[in-house]
Amino acid sequence: MEIVKNEQKVNEYRERAKELVAQMTLEEKVSQTLNWAPAVERLGIKAYNWWNEALHGVARAGVATVFPQSVGLAATFDEDFIEKVADAISTEGRAKFNMQQDKDDTDIYKGLTFWSPNVNIFRDPRWGRGHETFGEDPYLTSRLGVRFVQGLQGHDENYLKAAACAKHFAVHSGPEDIRHSFDAVASKQDMYETYLPAFKACVQEAGVESVMGAYNRTNGEPCCGSKTLLTDILRKDWGFKGHVVSDCWAIKDFHEGHHVTDTPVESVSMAMNNGCDLNCGNLFHYLKQAVEEGMVEESRLDDALVNLFTTRMKLGVFDKKGDNPFDKIPYNVVDSAPMRELNKEAAQKCIVLLKNENNMLPLDKSKLKTVGVIGPNANNRRALVGNYEGTASRYVTILEGIQDYLGDDVRVMASEGCHLCRPKTQGLGQQDDRISEVKGVCDESDLIIAVMGLDSGLEGEEGDEGNEFASGDKPNLNLPGLQQHVLETIYESGKPVVLILLSGSALAVNWADEHIPAIIQGWYPGAQGGKAMAEILFGEKNPEGKLPVTFYRSTEELPEFTDYSMKGRTYRYMQSEALYPFGYGLSYTSFDYSDVAVSSSEVGEDGIDVTATVTNTGKMAGGETVQVYVKVCRENTPNAQLKGIKKLHLAAGESAKVSIHLPKEAFGLYDENGVLQYTKDVKVFIGGQAPDTRSEKLTGNKVNEFTLSIG
């Protein structure tokens, strides 16, 4: 399926690409398979660097809007909004590209091929790169991945706005420190139930232009040279027509880490022969030798180049300037006021209210004289942005957002409290060198806002500069360093406390859940994060985020990090009770479900429709995520799984009718051979949360339930 709708135009691009490739020498062909493809002036081919990033904004290429990190965007559970954000990202991407091309700048991170989104499944909360994903659920990841791709690539009949890339195909989710040699062993059942659906949706529904392989092996085959993944599943089963790119320097892992080949020539031959078209790295230089020695057919190299040049032609870069509508996007849209406003809205929609005892929030500014803001993430810009980030023209930290909001009306006192993970903030100081300041601020304040958590220096990619922990992975789910000690000290002051967590993953804040009256999960909320958080705290806006990941009580209930079986993992397979469940999040208002119905008690070939009227029964406008779950009534099957979502925004007292279609496939499960099977009896649940006892306890609400049969 092509995102460029005009099939005749796509065929024209491919024919033009074939004609171009036919004129190239072997050396020229090989040069074009590297991410820094040089110019071929005699054929009118400009230099082009394929490597660009746009995970949550145009990255690494100067000033751009820095939106909330992906896992935060996932907490919106809002498909329409995700596409709106991705469309804004590609608008800035085109604007920057147009300016850079005008200045003859073809450097890295300055093309239109964005290596985003990351649709891997966040199967283990210790994984350092999990915050790059849309969470732990294959359905949610599929829906948001599809809309992110559509937002990046646009809906023009003839041209791509930008080229998106679904990565890392197919099961990559840690550990980071052994990814260059690790074999991720996954059953066919887990592959088709969990690891493959989001990629399939991006290919078949969104027409994603590119797919990136992973560093690791999957079931013995290195992903960037896997016949099973790249040829059998991606090309043959799913009909993928775009290009495949390796992860960066992943092909040298074939012989250096995985030891499935002995030489660089063998490695590039394995990659190219099994469907990898483009090398992020420099090893594809050896393709010339591979072709000359008969290890790779030149016709296969030609096919790879046709795939690559077709993408560039879809982007309009081989056509006359002005032929495609995106050439007209001016540079002044970058970091503009509308972009900043959209970014603030994104941050607000991401925020998840985890606890609000006795409706402590929202805060009443008129009743406060002094507010203390304490914690290592209170004024930490790095905790706003996550990784694969751009550069904002201004960052608003949580402390700054509160200071700006309260102005001169309320005194704001601040303390770092402690270092994010080390025992002291100053090199020559004693351990716990800010604790007296913490106590002093508490003494002076009417209320304390504690801002704790992580940043991308603690969780991130293997090899990232500054990773303090296990190559970016987390050793456990605790607040690191002295943060727990500082939080307990704040609590002991007897002052009311609001805890804000900034992190890209779940933290086991069991003590806080027992003792702290109000807890907010803010993720890495982007450059406008502090402004957005202040408006949530003081009731200008209503929190509406839901958790796209499970918050566990400890790592002890989890399987080994290296175990890729889904048994015992995520809300779909876990047996123990969560601290905060997937799909959970509170609001300042309340929602009532009435007239809940299913279109049939028997699921036929066309599936069923679930309908309900949702009413905002509180005193404040708010957003509600209607969630539909399906449970197959058979032993040894997953817990109820998310199969439908719809975001509603309702004024106080307002009602809206919602209808969510469930196709028949939503009621099937894959067997050990990867074949979709059906069981006669199923249950359907609809409400504002998952149908588990912990969610019921936390919200005081039960979801509506129907028992159906499969026709």
Q: What can you see in these coordinates?
A:
The chain has 711 residues and is of the alpha/beta class. It has three domains: 7-326, Glycoside hydrolase, family 3, N-terminal domain (TIM Barrel, Alpha-Beta Barrel), CATH 3.20.20.300; 339-549, Glycoside hydrolase family 3 C-terminal domain (Rossmann fold, 3-Layer(aba) Sandwich), CATH 3.40.50.1700; 591-710, Immunoglobulins (Immunoglobulin-like), CATH 2.60.40.10. The longest helix has 24 residues, at 79-102. The radius of gyration is 26 Å and the shape is globular. It has a six-stranded mixed beta sheet, sandwiched between helices. The two termini are 30 Å apart. The mean pLDDT is 97.
Within the CATH hierarchy, at the fold level, what is the topology of the largest domain?
A: TIM Barrel
Number of domains: 3
Per CATH, which architecture of the largest domain? Alpha-Beta Barrel
The CATH class designation of the largest domain is Alpha Beta
Strand content: 15-25%
Query: How many alpha or pi helices?
Result: 21
Low-confidence stretches are none
SSE layout and pairings?
Elements: H1 7-22, H2 26-31, E1 36-37, E2 48-49, H3 70-74, H4 79-102, H5 138-153, E3 165-169, E4 183-184, H6 188-195, H7 197-204, E5 210-213, E6 217-218, E7 221-222, H8 227-237, E8 243-245, H9 253-256, H10 264-273, H11 287-292, H12 298-314, H13 337-350, E9 352-356, E10 370-374, H14 382-385, H15 398-406, E11 411-415, H16 435-444, E12 447-453, H17 483-492, E13 497-502, H18 510-515, E14 518-521, H19 529-537, H20 570-573, E15 591-598, E16 602-603, E17 608-616, E18 622-632, E19 641-650, E20 655-662, E21 669-670, E22 676-677, E23 681-687, H21 693-699, E24 704-710
Parallel strand pairs: 3-5, 4-6, 5-8, 10-11, 10-12, 12-13, 13-14, 16-24
Antiparallel strand pairs: 1-2, 6-7, 9-14, 15-17, 17-20, 18-19, 18-23, 21-22, 23-24
